[in-house]
Design brief:
Elements: H1 13-35, H2 45-61, H3 80-101, H4 112-137, H5 160-177, H6 183-187, H7 190-204, H8 210-233, H9 238-256, H10 265-291, H11 295-317
Helix pairs in contact: 1-2, 2-3, 3-4, 3-7, 4-10, 5-9, 7-8, 8-11, 9-10, 9-11
Length: about 350
C-alpha cells in the first residue's frame, strides 16, 4: 500500500494546504449552521477572502506533484486533464466568492451591462479554458463524467446512467451558482470540486476503494446543496428566499433542460448569463415576485424544491451505498448490489 507521505511533496506544501482547507470547510459549515451564512457580517471581508484564497493555493499547488500521463480507466484516479479541469472549476468559484466578498462586481444598478459582462467573463472564460484543456490533454469521447469507472455492483444499464446524470446536473447547478449575488452560494460547490481529487489520490495510494470515491463525492455534492438550502431558508434571512431563491430556481432551469443539447456549452452559459443578469431583473423579477404574495409563500416553494432535490438524490445515489430503491421493470436480468431492495413496477 502506497504511503500518504512521499518525496513528491518534499516540503509538504500541498499536504499542509490540504489540511488547512479541510479545517476551513469545517469552520464555514459551523458558521453556516449557527448564523445562516458561511460568511457572517461580523467577519471582515478581507479575512474571509484570505480564507477562501487558501483553496486557490491548494488547487494550484497540485501542479507541483507528478502524475501519470495516461488515464486509468479501471479506477477513479487523477490524470492531467482532470487536474487542470479541477483547477479551472475551483478557480471559478474562488474568484466569484472573493469578488462577492470584497464587493468588486460592477454595480448592477449603475451599469447592468457591465455587471453581466463581468459575470459572463468568469463563466464563459472557464468554459473556454476547460475546452482548451480537453483538446490538448483529453478526449471529447471519453470525458470525466461519462467515462468514470464505477464499481461492478452498480448496474451499468439502469443505475450508472442515472448517477452520471445527477453528477452532470450538480455540475450545471455549480456553474449557475456563480451568477448569484451571495458569497455563500458562490462558495457552496467548491467542496465537491476539491473533494474529488483528494479521493482520487487516496484511491491511487490504495487507501480507499472506487466505491468510497463515489460515496464521498456524492455526499460532498449533496453538502453543497445543503449549504444552499440552509442559506436560503434560514429564518433570519427569509427575504433572501424570495429575492435570491426564486432566481436560483430560474437560472438552473435553462442549462438543466434539453435545450442545452442544441448548442455548444459556451452558448448555453452566455445565454444563461444574459437571462439571469439582464432579462430576469429587468423583465421577470417583478412578475415572478408578485406571484409570491409574501416571503412565506416563497419559503414554502423553496422547501418543496429542497425536499424534492433531497429525495431525488437519495434515489439516485442509493446503489452506491448498497441499496436500489428505484423502480425496475419486472423480469430485469441486471445484477443488484448486495442488500439492494428488489422493486418492480
Amino acid at each position: 500500500m502506497a504511503k500518504l507521505i512521499t518525496n513528491h511533496d518534499p516540503y509538504h506544501i500541498h499536504k499542509i494546504l490540504g489540511v488547512s482547507v479541510l479545517l476551513h470547510y469545517l469552520y464555514r459549515f459551523a458558521l453556516l449552521f449557527q448564523y445562516g451564512t458561511a460568511f457572517p457580517a461580523f467577519e471582515s471581508p478581507q479575512r474571509a477572502a484570505a480564507g477562501v484564497f487558501l483553496h486557490a493555493m491548494l488547487s494550484w499547488s497540485s501542479l507541483l506533484l507528478p502524475l501519470p500521463i495516461k488515464r486509468n480507466f479501471t479506477k477513479p484516479m487523477i490524470w492531467p486533464e482532470f487536474r487542470l479541469h479541477s483547477i479551472a472549476f475551483a478557480s471559478r468559484h474562488i474568484v466569484t466568492t472573493i469578488v462577492t466578498l470584497l464587493d468588486w462586481w460592477p454595480n448592477e444598478e449603475a451599469s447592468i451591462l457591465a455587471h453581466a459582462l463581468a459575470r459572463g467573463l468568469v463563466l464563459c472564460g472557464t468554459v473556454k479554458a476547460a475546452s482548451f484543456i480537453t483538446d490538448k490533454w483529453g478526449n471529447r469521447e471519453q470525458r470525466t463524467t461519462n467515462s468514470m469507472p464505477y464499481p461492478s455492483t452498480v448496474d451499468p444499464e439502469t443505475e450508472r446512467p442515472v448517477i452520471k446524470k445527477q453528477y452532470m446536473l450538480s455540475q450545471f447547478a455549480a456553474t449557475a451558482s456563480c451568477l448569484l449575488p451571495d458569497a455563500t452560494l458562490n462558495f457552496a460547490p467548491l467542496l465537491a470540486i476539491q473533494m474529488a481529487p483528494l479521493m482520487m489520490t487516496l484511491v491511487r495510494k490504495g487507501k480507499v476503494t472506487s466505491f468510497d470515491y463515489h460515496r464521498v463525492y456524492a455526499i460532498s455534492l449533496y453538502l453543497g446543496y445543503v449549504m444552499v438550502f440552509f442559506r436560503l431558508l434560514y429564518p433570519a434571512d427569509s427575504i433572501l428566499t424570495k429575492s435570491v431563491g426564486l432566481k436560483t430556481i430560474f437560472i438552473i432551469s435553462f442549462p438543466s433542460s434539453k435545450l442545452r443539447r442544441l448548442m455548444p456549452a459556451i452558448y448555453v452559459w452566455a445565454i444563461n448569463t444574459l437571462l439571469s443578469t439582464i432579462i430576469y431583473p429587468l423583465v421577470l423579477q417583478n412578475a415572478i415576485d408578485s406571484m409570491m404574495y409574501n416571503d412565506h409563500a416563497a419559503r414554502l416553494l423553496f422547501w418543496f424544491v429542497a425536499v424534492g432535490c433531497t429525495w431525488r438524490q437519495v434515489f439516485t445515489y442509493a446503489p452506491l451505498f448498497g441499496y436500489s430503491i428505484r423502480f425496475r421493470r419486472m423480469g430485469s436480468s441486471s445484477n443488484k448490489p448486495n442488500g439492494a431492495t428488489k422493486t418492480v413496477d
